[in-house]
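Page 47, continued from p. 46.
Same chain as before, 746 aa.
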Amino acid sequence: MTDPQGDVTAPLVPGAEKATPAAPRSPLAVGRKVLALVLLGAIVGGVVAGATLPVSAGVGMAAKLAGDSFEDLPSDLQVPPTPQASYIYANDGKTQITQFWEENRTDVGSDDIAKVMKDAIVAAEDTRFYEHGGMDLKGLVRAFVSNSRGGEVSGASTLTMQYVRNVLKNDETATDEEREAATEVSTGRKLQEIRYAITLEKELNDKEEILRRYLNIAFFGNKAYGVSAAARAYFSTTPDKLTLGQAAMIAGLVKSPYAYDPVNNPEDQALGRRNYVLNAMVGTGAITREEADKAVAEPLGLKPTAATSNCTAVPRTHNSWGFFCDYFLSWWKQQEEFGPTPEDREELLKKGGLRIVTSMDPKLQDQAAAESVRIYDHDDPKAAPLAAVEPGTGKVKALAINRFFSIEPNPGGGNYPNTVNQFVAGSDDSAGYQFGSTFKLFVLLAALENGFPLDAGYVTRSPFRTIYSDGGPTACGGFWCPSNADKTYQDGYQNMWTGFGKSSNTYFIKLQQEVGVTKAVEMAKRLGIQFRNQQDADLAAKPSGWGAFTLGVSATTPLDMANAYATLAADGKYCKPTPVVSITDSTGAVSDAAATVAKPECRQELDKDVARAATDAGRCVVGQQPTFGSCPNGTSPELSGLVGRPVSGKSGSSDNYATESFIAFTPQLAIAGIAANPDNPTDIVGLAAQDQVIRSIGTLLHDALKGQPVKDFPAPSEKISFRSGSAASPQLPPAPRTTKSPSSED
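Result:
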């Protein structure tokens, strides 16, 4: 008998139609029926009790049941779907990332089960399977005689009856008492099993289907539910490729899964049981004596695969996949289409038998992890999280960091080298990092959207007296008075092209004052920036005095920033980040809920010309030229040579170079990265770390896009580029553009 554990999902009702009432029977027929039932009850009672009850007691119980009529017992077995493992794949649909299960089971079709496996289970559990109609009366009599003579106690359950018992004991719609009753030692339970089994055989009229169902529901020990999991658990193969010896061993396990499991027990018991099954197969005519002897001479040949689940079960050779998996799981639990609570949604993932193709590019993910480790080793307290997003879809292609995704304790405590914290995509516990001047994008976009052209110019000097009140170390006369890191390089006349390219603090603070910080903060929210830190969230709710916003003092994550910049690459179309491409059930069907959540959630958030203008300004940063004019000496000219195709982006440093960040994008891919200490913001990474981040991102873009068409960015219009095209633009006279070399930025 099998011993599966766990729960199941909502019930299905195959063959739920009730049988047409039979015509009235003659008194003689009724008498024969009662007599047969009394005999059956006596046998069943003896079998159940191991022949310890006198036959008269069995007859008495059966007579009582006969008085109620055997045919009054429920006959239509409600068959809920068994819990199925869900498999998570990379974007190629072939590379398995991990699996989620509560019971390690994957149902397979009859054609996917080797014939020797079917023959072996019949020989081991029910040699008359193809002859009876659900109840084997001869088997019951034989078991009764054996038990009454003191032989091996046998339950005489057919495979169909065992299947019924497994269904009943795992029915999640039943009460605990009803599930316990499915395995109680009683004549009533046995008769009910027989009733269900007979009806099921009549309705299905297909022995192969009953075998398939049994082999998919049976427990085989070693966390293996169903023959597919068993084939993998013991031999790292699939059920259609099982050899004779392997099939016989697996079939022998169901008699006592825990005792015969050769992975967690000595092999001799499983070996003896396997040989018993091989001999039984000779008896059924499934194999010859010669075939049996050959298989008996073989060792078990175990090649076990450990049954693992969840994100910590990713392959050891691709440990970084765990961080993407963790992001996927967090995303999944937020999808209301999959259940009313996060717990319900996770339960569906563990039981639903889903096949989920994610957006993760395994090659890019592995390379991003390698680049992160190039910046800082695994055991360095500093970290280099990297995120890659596909513009126009929001598909997250990679999430990497120089940590091991593991729950193993760390030598000195803390979060390195092992962690399961979501330092790349962010969470309630991980607000992110200060991304510095990359936030100037939101001021730039707000200005462009409100009629300021790219050549809107200002002359600013350090220190710059702002309109924002401040009593701190950078205050002058009660107002905030910030400076540029390199006055020669960043002071003086700048427009959007040069100010963005050289990352002039004073220029962007002046621009923020003109357009309004509230509009800049709102722009960040529109492009997906989440203010997870409570202090940042409070400032974002009432931002009118938040002068330092444009300098990137708010914490955010590489994923948020990569996706915000990807909006520019997609011509202003914002897409909510997503880790999935498709979701199908065990039959290959796509539910309405799955279709909804797998579809990219996009909207045209920016006017195309606004997005193109911001992209144009970003080309000044990376050593390329805008559509109109020129902007030499951007902060990160080396990126252009690394990528080798049209690219745009922005660099960023937080105060005193505590963090160093960079974001770059092409029409096909956006990548954001940062050097920081997630546990100690005061641990300075230094300006040199930015060069390492730039190098890694440039390398990733180059390699990821190798072989793909070279695409250029659409040009912005002259109207949005020059002040003559907009009456709202500041009317300042043109001035020569500076050509000094960069040294640093804030």
